[in-house]
């Protein structure tokens, strides 16, 4: 097991690359970075973006490992990232200040935010499998960690606020990607400078739907060294429920009020966080 990394009061997984190497990495103008706090729908956004960037090559999406097509910047050797053919689609969970300066001016950065209660339930279900965390607590413990900045990749409000405040970043929400799909995918396509017809976008939405992705074998083709940090890897771990408001079945009222209070105090008031499906909110 690798030790967790503590840096400036932020906790990173033990597998994290040399942070300085990331900060000084060579950017290319045709790079696209997909960033999100863990469990916010990053994998889903990556797949949509990879397909848009690669001429909707569904065949390749099914036949080649997602994790080799979209490299995980925080973990993969920088040399491998340097050698990835253009256009690179890279995934990261890092707070903005850990990425190269002016990254969103040089290349495209898409940030996905998800409501923190669903993030915490998803995170709780996932961290049990991470070897270096050795976590055996309850969801209530995770909510406590949320208030004490002990969740991987730091404070959720800080993470979101910084990307939101950068005018060059395309900021999207998991909830909109699920419920206002056409509109949100169109925003992504336009941001990437591509043109797709409504029919093409409808097919893309269908191909990247929760149930389709859950059975897409490319997510089961994991890099060899992943078994070092994930216990009994099963790619279904990445596709658990795929819903808005699943937290309602797991949170007590006290836990919910606690998260509301923290978010109210720290989040940029311009950010609209949606906790429930549209028809219920
Ligand atoms: P749940 O655990 O709530 O189901 P990340 O990729 O950032 O780790 O985020 C994982 C979350 O995104 C999981 O949430 C997962 O189910 C959800 N997800 C992945 N693909 C999805 C899709 N195509 N549609 C909706 N949700 C998806």
From TrEMBL:
<dbReference type="GO" id="GO:0008146">
    <property type="term" value="F:sulfotransferase activity"/>
</dbReference>
<comment type="similarity">
    <text>Belongs to the sulfotransferase 1 family.</text>
</comment>
<protein>
    <recommendedName>
        <fullName>Sulfotransferase domain-containing protein</fullName>
    </recommendedName>
</protein>
<keyword id="KW-0808">Transferase</keyword>
<dbReference type="InterPro" id="IPR000863">
    <property type="entry name" value="Sulfotransferase_dom"/>
</dbReference>
<dbReference type="Pfam" id="PF00685">
    <property type="entry name" value="Sulfotransfer_1"/>
</dbReference>
<feature type="domain" description="Sulfotransferase">
    <location>
        <begin position="29"/>
        <end position="267"/>
    </location>
</feature>
<dbReference type="InterPro" id="IPR027417">
    <property type="entry name" value="P-loop_NTPase"/>
</dbReference>
